[in-house]
Amino acid sequence: MHDLLDAGVSRAQVKKVMVSLRSILSEAMEREWVEHNVATDVKLKRQSRTAGDGKVIPTKDEIRLVIDKAPASHRVMFITAIFTGMRISELRGLSWDGVDFERRVIRVYQRADEFQQIGAPKSRAGRREIPMAPMVHDALLAWRDEVVESDLNLVFPNSKGKVQSYSNINNRVYRPMMRELGLVDEAGRPRFGFHSLRHAAASLFIEQGWNPKKIQTIIGHASITMTMDT
What we know:
- By secondary structure, the protein is mainly alpha-helical.
- Helices cover 44% and strands 6% of the residues.
- The strands form two sheets. A three-stranded antiparallel β-sheet has the order 1-2-5.
- A hairpin with a 5-residue loop joins strand 3 and strand 4.
């Protein structure tokens, strides 16, 4: 089982394999085909401070560093990611029509795909309302007066008002920022990817005492199992 984890198989899938294996061996014991259910002795390694994708989840100090030192061009995007748990595709496709300052919520109803095309979320769970933390509210309010105009009314467009590509955000902004802040491993690679900001948001929600069902809805997971496994 540990070999499966090391090979990149998700923890949730390994658990399912273990349940099936224990059940099979239990039946074999009852039929006296085996003397002992060896699967009952197998324990999964306790998860360290890593997310389901194998990336390190940022600490609070690392989060504060990103918030304080992020490039001005993307600081508000990163703040929004950290405190809403929105996917990068949802941030890239976010329209001002989805930002309700009066109700202090962000409505997620569209996303930008890998070809910079705007479309609907991949699942029904992707459509949701996310409460804006005070920092997100204030940052977006100030950003609205600074951002370039966009025919698509985008919150985070590129310099020409078009949809930003993920590769540009990652390679030209995020990864250089991580290196500049010293948030890298021994090989000089970023300690955590952009997607880990989403896991950081979920951790902050848990710390605030939100119940799993609410977190599932806010994060946009299709199932509570996915939320809890992550």
